[in-house]
Amino acid sequence: MLDLGTSFLASVARDPQALALVDGEVRFTYAQWLDKISALVAAFDRLGLKPGDHLLTALQNGWQSATVHWACQLAGLIITPINWRVNADELDFCIENSEGRALVYQDVSEPSVRASILAGELVILRAGSTTRPGEFSLDAFCNEKAPEAVARISAEAWSVMLYTSGTTSRPKGVPRRHRAERAAGIAHVAQNLYHRGERTLGVMPLYHTMGVRSLIAMSLIGGTFVCLPRFDAKRALDLIASEGITNLYLVPTLYHDLVYCDDFARSDVSSVRKLGFAGASMTDGLLQKLAEAFRPELFVNHYGSSEIYTFTIDQNAPAKPGSAGKAGINQLVKTVKLNAASVNDVASAGEEGEIVALLGGDESFEGYWRRPDADARALRDGWYFTGDTGYVDAAGDLFVTGRVDDMIITGGENVSPVEIESCLSLHPAVLEVAVVGLPDERWGKVIAAFIKRSRRVSEEELDKFCRESGLAAFKRPRCFVFVDTIPKSPVGKLLRRLLVAGEYQVELMPPSNAV
Hints:
By secondary structure, the protein is of the alpha/beta class. The longest helix is centred in the N-terminal third of the chain and has 17 residues, at 30-46. Strands 12, 13, 14, 15, 16, 17, 18, 19, 20 and 21 form a ten-stranded mixed β-sheet that branches. The chain has 15 helices and 26 strands. The model has no long low-confidence stretch (mean pLDDT 94). It has a domain at 407-500: ANL, C-terminal domain (GMP Synthetase, Chain A, domain 3). Keywords: Ligase.
């Protein structure tokens, strides 16, 4: 297996004049981009950074963040990207945990960098046109002349360390080798049927596994990565039309915002022929809406994680709503009984259990960064216990029903919130929905549905809809709460714990177009 640096050099040799990167007015061919990357590799050397050092980034998607990523692959540095919204305490944790040697940031993250206790001990590079005393200019480094960079590490070296979201505890570092990253990129190309010269919208952040995979996949096929620093539906629609975007790979929340944007009906999205989503389940209602709006040639549900990029793939998601399909080309998965003592305690067809994936797959990680406690919980007998619940149907397709921690136990019955959300999403007045279990003295938990509505609808109407849809009585929500927003993480993952904790704002007034 090639290391990623050599892989990128091979891409430049194949398609030197192909358009590689777009970021506003910045447009680089592969040859031009390599010049910038090579200059940055030379700068890393002058700064004393060595293969195996961790370089942290707090950057939005742009030419600088993408250039730093590839420069690290050639220089042998372990790029350790963190959310640009990071606060000072989180930044200090990541610096200390990773033993970081350098940090690249931009103005949007400046307050946290300034408030950080540990950042001052690192080599600091700032993206943009200005710097502060003691900092180096990333842009100036990239504009220098330097010999063409050569790869200096093997496919066995560490490539990247992503941090998990840490919604319930401190985030965990997920180190991944060059060979695993490249295998994941190749699988992404194959499973999404990408062809040479594809153009993707680079909006999933490069601190997230989906963003990194899009970047690598485009380089493998001489494709174009069109940067969008932060998601804005109107701007995304403009870029789709002006740059001829051919594929989208987004979380369901971003698709929702895109297709419900006021400008969508007036926008030209005809260039988009392939849709892919990951990061969360997609409701039946949104699947239908997207299939009708884009009429794509391919609509892929990709189920995976930071730890093991691909678990399963369904290449025709609308045909079997809710199905995550079958194992990817580099993977073997199964479901085991909840709280199983062994990976051999396999759940029956149709029985809900915990999803586990083989650690021997080409895309797999090998364990968390200095977290033996996390390894002990998640890695057993050569398998990765995902913490996700699901079942396999009679046809062998996997259905992901939620998280083990999200399972609602009401009156002794296990209820998946995803099933209820998919049902309610089909009601025309429901714009977004999240279902959780709230404490109850008698039942243990009662099912509550939080609804963002597009027009006025009553609790009685929604309950009747659930009943007529065939939802079992014990699965029907016992209360409905109308809210203005559903809490989500920066990459669009539903934050049920905030709803359970009461951290939400009830709807201030019915929708303006209520009937």
